[in-house]
Design goal:
Length: 257
């Protein structure tokens, strides 16, 4: 399954902005969900490693391993390795994971790009120690006022659907209660208001990767895509402090029996 958002330097810049935007709801989620310091935490789909370091810092894990199947992202992440944080080039749809059985597996904004969610989660459960936790954060909804944001989201939604993925993957995930030896321990939606400038920056950077893809060429005129790009660029100005876009992040905690 192709990862639609790419692993270029621009894609890595987008993930840096995303890391800044979502650090606060993720930190709150981790502190609510985890009582004990994990010996080994594994961050699946870690990108350049921002979430991996956040996990390590917030939970004071003895060791944290980030896994990603992008050579470029893992090479960037490896530059930030410490005694307590390491990275592996690994496709997380393949088992076993390289770092060994984990006390905690963490996944943010990855299941939206994968298929067969139930069997994926069942597989990950096998990589947990008994009593270990699987923490998932994915998008439940996005509320927005501006047409330019609505246009962008409509395109991303259609691109994901075209390869049988779901942008709003929170609701189906919340439908899973006990799954693959895991028990659901908590589920909530945490809201995050985002500055227009930050949302526009993430969206603008993201479309640099896919704006000339076959799917876009087949479904949208170059004029439409140019207009979208210019609209996002104009909103990305940092002096723009308005917040007219809000994410609902589904935060799920499962525990291995
Ligand atoms: C949207 S990014 C999220 C990165 C990070 N979890 C965060 O929240 O900042 C999705 C990441 O998953 C990675 N990815 C996609 N499919 C993967 C797979 N099958 N195995 C490992 N990593 C994968 C991509 O390379 C990308 O780094």
């Amino acid at each position: 399954m192709e990862y639609l958002f790419g692993d270029t330097d621009i894609a890595a810049r987008r993930l840096k902005v995303l890391a800044e935007v979502y650090a606060e709801p993720t930190r709150a989620f981790l502190l609510d969900a985890v009582a004990d310091e994990p010996r080994l935490a594994v961050d699946v789909g870690c990108g350049p490693g921002y979430t991996t370091h956040l996990l390590s810092d917030v939970l004071q894990c003895e060791h944290t391993a980030g896994l990603d199947n992008s050579e470029h992202f893992v090479s960037l992440a490896k530059k930030t390795e410490t005694e307590k944080v390491s990275f592996y080039l690994h496709d997380v749809t393949s088992l076993p994971f390289p770092a060994g059985p984990a006390d905690l597996i963490y996944c943010r904004m990855l299941l939206t790009h994968l298929n067969e969610l139930r069997s994926q989660i069942t597989d990950w459960a096998t990589q947990l120690q008994p009593g270990g936790l699987l923490l998932i954060e994915e998008v439940e909804w996005i509320h927005m006022e501006k047409d330019v944001f609505k246009d962008y989201i409509k395109i991303v939604d259609a691109m994901l659907e075209h390869q049988s993925n779901q942008l709003y993957v929170g609701p189906p995930l919340d439908g899973f209660t006990d799954i693959g030896g895991l028990k659901k321990r908590a589920s909530r939606v945490r809201r995050k208001l985002v500055k227009n400038s930050q949302a526009a920056t993430m969206f603008f950077l993201n479309m640099q990767f896919w704006k000339e893809s076959p799917f876009i060429r087949a479904n949208h005129s170059p004029e439409t895509i140019d207009r979208l790009e210019q609209g996002l660029y104009a909103l990305s100005d940092e002096s723009n402090r308005e917040m007219e876009i809000e994410w609902g992040m589904r935060q799920l905690v499962y525990q291995r029996a």
